[in-house]
UniProtKB/TrEMBL annotation:
Highest taxon in the source lineage: Bacteria
Domain HTH marR-type: 37-177
Lineage of producing organism: Bacteria, Bacillati, Actinomycetota, Actinomycetes, Micrococcales
Protein's name according to its UniProt entry: HTH marR-type domain-containing protein
Region (Disordered), start-end ranges: 178-199
SUPFAM superfamilies: Winged helix' DNA-binding domain
SMART domains the record matches: HTH_MARR
Species annotation: Microterricola pindariensis
Record-linked InterPro entries: HTH_MarR-typ, MarR/SlyA-like, WH-like_DNA-bd_sf, WH_DNA-bd_sf
Record's compositionally biased regions (Low complexity): 187-199
């Protein structure tokens, strides 16, 4: 039985089911799909939504545990990854990665240094720059939270066959490209959505 006709209504799936959010097919081209395939497509979108919500919860838990905001966490992850790769991180590099201004990066680094999360030291080759490093205590906290989560994600990906991984890679890259494309209605300044909401 299809989700649209099921007696047990699933609100999470229904908000992603074009038969419910777009019953006339104005935006989503689904008329040619058999009901069982349409159910499967909705299941894929529902799984993506569940993953995003889980990722948001995990991120919030990690930030709450370390008492940091999202930008701070991204900064620490970047510095840790750079250290593991043998790369010295400067404020300019970090600002470029986070896409924030020099003034904002200075305020952030002041705050992180005061909280004991990072250290700043002279750059060995550039007297105008300083090297940013994560303190041992913060590095250990990051490994205890982010590191363990990443290890479990790696195990899930490693359990797939090479062919399955290629399908997942192509699918996720296609989704990422869609997110980066400007919608026609946005370019025209229209307030009318071009696709159903997914959140």
């Amino acid at each position: 039985m299809s989700k649209a006709n099921s007696t047990r209504w699933d609100p999470a799936a229904s908000m992603l089911d074009p038969r419910i959010v777009d019953p006339t097919g104005s935006y989503v081209r689904y008329a040619g799909l058999p009901p069982e395939e349409l159910d499967q497509v909705v299941a894929v979108l529902t799984a993506i939504k569940a993953w995003r919500e889980s990722e948001d919860r995990t991120s919030l838990e990690s930030r709450s545990y370390m008492r940091l905001n999202e930008t701070d966490m991204r900064a620490l992850r970047f510095v840790i990854a750079a250290k593991n790769a043998g790369v010295l991180v400067t404020a300019g590099m970090l600002a470029g990665h986070l896409q924030i201004s020099t003034a904002s990066i200075t305020k952030m680094l002041d705050r992180l240094e005061k909280a004991g999360h990072i250290t700043r030291s002279p750059h060995p080759d550039d007297r105008r720059a300083v090297v940013i490093a994560v303190t041992p205590a913060t590095h250990a906290d990051a490994r205890a939270t982010i590191g363990r989560k990443h290890a479990r994600r790696f195990d899930v990906a490693a359990a797939l066959s090479p062919a399955e991984r290629e399908v997942v890679i192509g699918f996720l890259n296609s989704l990422a490209e869609l997110e980066e494309e400007a919608e026609p209605s946005e370019e025209a300044g229209s307030a009318e959505p071009t696709s159903p909401q997914t959140d």
